[in-house]
Amino acid sequence: MSRVALVSGGTRGIGAAICLALKKEGYDVVANYGGNDEAAEAFSKETGIPVAKFDVSDFEAVKAGIEKVAQEHGPVEVLVNNAGITRDSTIQKMSADQWQAVIDTNLGSCFNLCRCVIESMREKGFGRIVNIGSINGQAGQYGQVNYAAAKSGIHGFTKALAQEGAGKGITVNAIAPGYIETDMVRSVPENVLEKIVARIPVGRLGQAEEIARGVVFLVADDAGFITGSTLSINGGQHMY
Ligand code: NDP
User: Fold this and answer.
1) What is the radius of gyration, based on Cα positions, of the chain?
2) In sequence order, what are the residues at sequence separation of 6 or more whose Cβ sits closer than 8 angstroms to the Cβ of residue 44?
3) With a threshold of 0.90, does the pTM exceed it?
4) CATH code: domain of residue 51
5) Complex ipTM more than 0.90, yes or no
6) Domain contains 239
7) Is 70 in the pocket of ligand 1 (CB under 6 A)?
8) Active site (annotated) includes residue 179
9) How many angstroms is it from 10 CA to the middle of ligand 1?
């Protein structure tokens, strides 16, 4: 019987690649998304992967969304907390809304989703959770106090929840991607991007599939001894 996997923000970019890689491995995958219906419909039509629209920053919406997924597919056994946004600005120009949106969508979502799947995972004695952090949560980044704080929070959240899940067959790990060629990175000005690529030892941006490969590894049934870890997938950038 295939395991039920939910990927937040699974209809575009890294999340879409994760969904496809999990489907290829035989998981019963559901892709969550927040608002871009056009992209979600195109993704679902092309891949045959069902989509579930709910705002991961809103606890009640997540609760209802997870209940619907459970009714239609069964309880979520594999959760990938991937949805994320940026609202970049230096702190003196950053609005409270820019701060809060990034904290709620990137970090609050991890609480919301984990809180809504953890009981069924504990009952089952099995669960796999992967949280998508960022190299910028490890090292910080100019113009991203909101994003770096949220992503850094994800790394602490991962280690705390890993300790709670360890005796119940639930592993919780993080992946810290470097710069990956998605819409999020395409919105970075070209001159800034050139400087970023110059600092990546392998000399190029990463591909979404290269993050998906790490997820497939961490969620496998026989990966039960890996928990509380952060896998850096960044072309070697974390060494500098
Ligand atoms: P994209 O912007 O390409 O895709 C983001 C996805 O998240 C979309 O599916 C979007 O849905 C969804 N989403 C955003 N807000 C919400 C919300 N409130 N509720 C539900 N879904 C939401 O992002 P990437 O693929 O580039 O990034 C994926 C993750 O990887 C993020 O957490 C990001 O921070 C992280 N990351 C990315 C890096 C990169 O270089 N790209 C580097 C390091 C980390 P919709 O289509 O409806 O908007």
Assistant:
1) 17
2) 11, 31, 50, 51
3) yes
4) 3.40.50.720
5) yes
6) no
7) no
8) no
9) 8
Residues facing 51 on adjacent strands: 31
- Helix (H) / strand (E) element for 146: namely helix 145-165
Domain contains 209 = yes
Mean of pLDDT values over 132-139:
96
- Indicate the number of domains in the chain: 1
- Residue 240 maps to a domain: no
Residue 93 CA to ligand 1 centre (angstroms): 23
What is the distance between the alpha carbons of residues 152 and 8, in angstroms, rounded to a whole number? 19
CA neighbor of 178 nearest in space, from 123, 231, 135, 128? 135
Query: Mind listing the pLDDT tens digit for each residue in 150-201?
Result: 999 999 999 999 999 999 999 999 999 999 999 888 888 899 899 999 999 9
Structural domain range at position 17: 4-233
Residue nearest (by alpha carbon) to ligand 1 atom 34? 84
- Atom number, ligand 1, closest to the C-alpha of residue 56: 19
With contact defined as beta carbons under 8 Å apart, do 211 and 156 qualify? Answer: no
